[in-house]
Amino acid sequence: MTNKWFTCFAVVSLLFFLESSGSKTVAQDDPTHLRVNVVLVQLNVAVTDDKGNYVTGLRPEDFSVNEDKIPQKVSTFEESIEAGHSPMEAVRRDHQPHGTNAAPSGADPGLAKPADATGVTISRLSDSSVFVLFDTSNYMYRGFVFAQDAIADFIRSMDESNRVAFYSYSRNLSRATALTSDHFRTVSGVRSTVAGDDAALYNSLLLTVKDAAPLKGRKAIVVFSNGPDNASSVPPEDVAELAQSTGTIIYIISTRQAEQDPVSAAAFERMSKVSGGKAYFAKNWREEKQAFASIKEDLVHLYTLSYYPQSNPNRGWRSIKVKLNGKDLQKYHIRTRDGYRLLPATALPTEEYTSKANEAEPK
């Protein structure tokens, strides 16, 4: 990607412009100050077999992480309790070929282990923060009610410990419901939406990524779109890079088939893939519900691991490569973000950017 610093200044300026353009908001933490000082890099990693089944029971030593080809030491490791066992059992088990979706007995999910023999801190999965971004542009007139139903069902299906926010967009972004574990309140926000005019998806998605950036732990944005973007002032590449650099997963459900709008389809697939998420193209309301169910399953089966970066002179874009160790694990597939941008505060004179997904105080 060329002219990276120009892109960084452009993103900062656009965020300032968009945030001051009159979007409806719910009270949030100060959205204008995000400082970038990477101390801890967090990765959300999906591991699947050739049939798409999730592989559970992996341990920290099963993963190797390289940043700019520099080996990194995994510092923390989490696996969802809903995957069928506690992360501590995965550490206690003897090394053997791993099956898919296995559920060992005797799990004790209420405990956390400070560190295993390798010095990796292992704990139960932290709560997720999920932003639902709903297309209420004039593209949505025909399937509006069905889309509301699919979104409401998805929110109800989330574990009560997870916080969910509901945003909608047409030409402007509307933050209908701030992050909350009160899912009834979030669903009420869904039901209150009305159809609008043109679609500024990339503008709205960029602002949503910005809202997610300061949050700790796993965070994801689920976009429901019914058409191409025809009103944004930012390209999807800028959204993708900011999502990567802030550790925010993007999932996109589009009701337009890829062959109907190949340009938007390619942008959706690119943004979701580089952030560690997925893009879905649903033909009808049944496939919309299936896509939401798939996203929920993905969120509860992700491994979350982090590392303190080794000394690296690169102050710009840093590439990340995650691999599985051992011949018996090479057959599995990994999905995660492929890098992040380290932006010195001096490069951002008007606002300080921080990705707290990439930041934590040393313990």
Q: How many H/I helices?
A: 8
Measured between the Cα atoms of the first and last residue, the distance is: 36 Å
Please give the largest β-sheet: 6 strands, mixed
Approximately how much helix is present in the residues? Answer: 25-40%
SSE blueprint and pairings:
Elements: H1 4-19, E1 41-48, E2 63-67, E3 70-72, E4 74-79, H2 87-92, E5 121-124, E6 129-135, H3 144-157, E7 163-169, E8 173-180, H4 183-191, H5 201-212, E9 219-225, H6 236-246, E10 249-254, H7 262-275, E11 279-281, H8 285-301, E12 303-307, E13 317-324, E14 333-335, E15 339-341
Parallel strand pairs: 4-5, 6-7, 6-9, 9-10, 10-11
Antiparallel strand pairs: 1-12, 1-14, 2-3, 2-13, 4-12, 7-8, 13-15
Helix pairs in contact: 1-5, 3-4, 3-8, 5-6, 6-7
